[in-house]
Amino acid sequence: MNGSLEVSELLHALFLVGIVAEAMTAALAAGKREMDWLGVAMLGCVTALGGGSTRDVVLGHYPLTWVAHPYYLLLTSGAALLTIAIARYMHRLRNIFLFLDAVGLVVFTVIGCNVAIGLNLPVVIIIASGMITGCVGGVLRDILCNSIPLLFRAELYATVSILTGLLYIGGLHMQWHHDLVMAAAMIFGLTLRLLALRYGWSMPKFIYGGNIH
């Protein structure tokens, strides 16, 4: 029991690290679009919390995470605004933020899967719930910044989320120890994402240059 409690606390701590990192990277995207400070704060909140909010709305899971825990709004908006003050140093922290973004992706995925599991939903919905939680915040950020969402590019991002979710659900289905399954799924997803960044792994692209008439 104590072991599971410690794991839950660690997962929550990683979640907080993830939303802070997402908010700070969103702030940089806002800066490239020359948004005002309110826009920076809002984009930070939307990016960090948008995936979980979208999941909860789709699944009818209430209250929304940030409604149940309002300090998440303060944490993410504060992190975004802090980025304004330290923006000149952010390029030196690029690798750290890429790592934290990867951590956030796998942690959000597992949390999203757990929400769907708690609602006794089918496996395909559980996997989708994990991917929505892990990826949609970034999609909302890119849409608001008028960019092609990372999810729709060839980069291994959504694929990492799906595979992490499949490994997690598969392990639970085999009735392996929950904490070990969760750790293995997150380590696998994190390793795959970092290797994809390091070696430029990507999904095949669809390129069509012809006319439809």
TrEMBL record:
Residue ranges of the TM segments: 71-89, 96-117, 123-144, 156-174, 180-201
Protein name (database record): Trimeric intracellular cation channel family protein
InterPro entries, alphabetized: Gly_transporter
Membrane topology: Multi-pass membrane protein
Family (UniProt): Belongs to the UPF0126 family.
Locations listed in the record: Cell membrane
Keyword Cell membrane carried by entry: yes
Domain Glycine transporter positions: 14-87, 99-169
First-listed, main subcellular location of the protein, grouped into a coarse class: membrane
Organism in which the protein naturally occurs: Yanghanlia caeni
Keywords: Cell membrane, Membrane, Transmembrane, Transmembrane helix
